[in-house]
Amino acid sequence: MREVLMLIVVLLPMFTGILTPMLSFRSRKAMCIYLETAVCVNSLLVFWLLFHAPDKTLTVFRFTHDLSITLGLDGMGAVYGGLVAFLWPLALLYGFEYMEGEEKEKSFFLFYVATYGVTLGVALSENILTMYFFFEMLSLVTLPLVMYTRTREAVLASRTYLYYMLGGAAFAFIGMIFVLVYGTTSSFVPGGVLDLVNVHEKKDTLLAVYVLCFCGFSVKTALWPFSSWLPKAGVAPTPVTALLHGVAVVNTGAFAVMRVTYFSFGTKLLRGTWAQYLVMGLAVFTIVYGCSRAVKETHFKRRLAWSTVGNLSYILFGVTLMTPMGMAGALTHLVCHSFMKSCSFLCAGAVIHKTGKNYIYQLDGLGRKMPKVFACFGVSALALTGVPGLCGFVSKWYLAEGAVDSGEPLALAGTAALMISALLTAVYMLSILVRVFFPKKGFDPAEIEEVREPGWRMLVPLGVLAVCILCLGLYSEPLVRMLKEIADF
Amino acid sequence: MDAFLLIPIVLPMFFGALLLFFSFREKNTAPGGRRERARLCLYVSAVLGISVALALAAAWSGDRELVLFTLFEGVPVYFHVDALGRLFVTVVSLIWVLSALFAFVYMKHEGKEKRYYGFYLILYGVLVALDFSGNLVTMYLFYELTTLVSMPLVLHNGTREAVMAALKYLFYSMCGAYGGLFSVFFLYRYSDSLNFAPGGTLNQAAAQGHEGILLIAVFAALVGFGAKAGMVPLHAWLPTAHPVAPSPASAVLSGVIVKSGVLAVVRVVFYVAGTDFLQGTWVQYVWMTLALLTVFMGSMLAYREQIFKKRLAYSTVSQVSYIMFGLSLLTPDAFTGALLHVVVHAVVKCGLFLTAGVFVYRFGYTRAEELGGIGKKMPKTMWCYLLLSLTLVGIPPTGGFVSKWYLAEGALQSGTGVFSWLGPVVLLVSALLTAGYLLPIAMKGFFPGSEHLQGLEEPHGIEEPGEGAQAHSSRKALGPELSPAMLVPLVVLAALAVWLGVFPGPVSEYAARIATAVF
Fold first, then answer.
1. pTM to 2 decimal places
2. Closest by Cα among B228, B131, B212 to B180
């Protein structure tokens, strides 16, 4: 029974989404209630699943003896699934207000809700084929969301999006084939599935394939040199940018990388090889690169997108340390970053929705008009810069601890990169805060006289996320202990 | 558990935040009436008075400690009052009260008083917490908060220049803080605990074979936390940020906030890494070089600077690196001298910036050459200025002499080769330069020569940004006398500066006791 529930939580959002355009609602409100109820029920089911984890897997469909679409729940999947289940209802609630008055609203919510199921599918994948399947599907389901506004810019962005995603998946596919051929099983097994004795003479080939596979999956996390799609995809409506390009899509990439590194190829094969140094080098470089681009960017959402590029590379950096501590750090940052980035994106969206201002230099003095929004933004900004007591510091602490512990020279350089990136984060986030709360002399308050705070459907998600950031920062022990247990195998 | 420690930290923060909240809700930013201002001053004095009393009571009643909650496994937010923290908290409290008293009058012409006092109160709580911090992570937390909360004081007047200076301050300090954080990770890995213990907590066995990276880490902390103390290479923010703040804010920034950088360095070097670990390493030599370089460079730049407050800011750069140099020598005498200089410099620099505030407030004078003949107008202020200057130069029997004596003696005994004589020489040259940039103002002030006397008949029209016409007229109405709220802090500070030199015993013995503990 519990196994079937896994399938249900994946399918329920998809059907909910697909039904949306077919049903005729009496009012917009009815549609919102319908969607929110379905998503909340699904999230509750996911939470129930987390606490009553099924001990068996569920094979939905079998191609041949070993190739199957199979769902299962382990610690890592539980973390990611739980995170997604927590964020989706909030982001959806926000979306109701943001999308108000838009045309084609129904098709938006179709894909928006369906993506929820697909993302859960990634989290619940039991083998590499299943994960690949959902991974591909995620690209396709989110494409219409990027294209949503149908402007020239959006169409171009979605084309870039598609090319990057398909290209990445192609590389990942190569990795998958090698794992299937050389692995003892296609399932995810902690420590890897490769038979180290047999593959010894093919080690270099396998390492090269690992690098390809890593890069392929990392396209979704916007690893340099595959990062330019993410800022472009910012043309999508903000609920999409916040949840998909701040959390779901990029985290799926990081999640997939964790899976192939720790559960398919295995760290025994990879640790101390050129492949590890290469991918770690890429991650370290992207950390600094993403943040530098963010400093240079003046478009509000694009700046946050570049910040995502840098922050996702924190996670990849933790993954490439290939130690349990690094993995724990990566998982911590995966969780913490999701809260911080979705909060800051949603704040940006609220500003754009209420004022139509897209660029940072237009934001002067808005803090006085939208204190609640910018208070939440302030919390997330300070968390991203790593002020102790907020959750950004927690994940940074564990990542750095893992790096220092590994003792690798490149990891030490990575620690320095974390600090540089923290400084750059301070530059690009706090300069916004200073601008909105302390407008320069000569600023005319009459210009923004009309600006109002958004409604409760926007404020509630913001507040909840800000509180989460604070609570996680002050009391992270249970979470981290759990993540450490997951990472320690 | 000793929750009493928490009260002087939380109380000013809470009431400061309350004040900020009210200032935020206020639509009308025009300066309020007389009664409103009186109420505000009463509120601030009450909160500050109670907080200071409680902070001092908490500090001087034994080694209290408090584990607030666990941030990470084995790393709690932990407060512990020790001798060093006690010294710092006393200095902070003293300066804070006097500067607030001065601000009650001064801030009239700056406007946005509620915001100013709000941050001012919160900052006091943060600094008390910083001084009471019992481990590195707690200290780091409050160090960051110090930066964030003091930044609004810098940009107070809201001009483009001020905002840019504030951002510069913010980013330099952040950069420094991350250097410090970098070292925290390594110290955490290779020491028994991050809790401060005199003499250090480094785990020799664990650190074996990792000395290279540990030295780099400690160096990162020195340069990083040194940013706040205005040490080369991260000093450039100081002369930009301190002068643009309102004078009472400059006074606490230059007098006290820079010392939080010093405190952080002392904590890392003497309470976690340990002096044995650094003695004779490249880190010590580079540190000494940087400190001496800063001492010399700061004085030179101050000497050729004409804007009065900026000159004082350069002087801070130079003088705080006296302290840094004293610390870098790693000998007990120099350490004592450094701590003494922390006290002396806090008193003197606060006083000097307040004097600068008087000139700005009364006449709108900002440049050194405008101050000719001012001694005739305001003899009391100028006498205070003279005494404070003499202290900073280090002429006996003032406080500056004692601290520099210890510093020089420590340098001569340190056995650091060329530095043991180069140090005192640089200190001496810098003292001459200090005399060169401070005393002529006093001289010209009292003996202006004939050409200056004319200009003083009428106060100049003042182009100070941030003041309304009302403030302007109120200034004229004030007449030549300074109001007691402005004069008292100056007199107290000047008296203290001299008193520290005439009766240096209690303070220097206290500092020497800390020195014996850490070596």
1. 0.90
2. B228
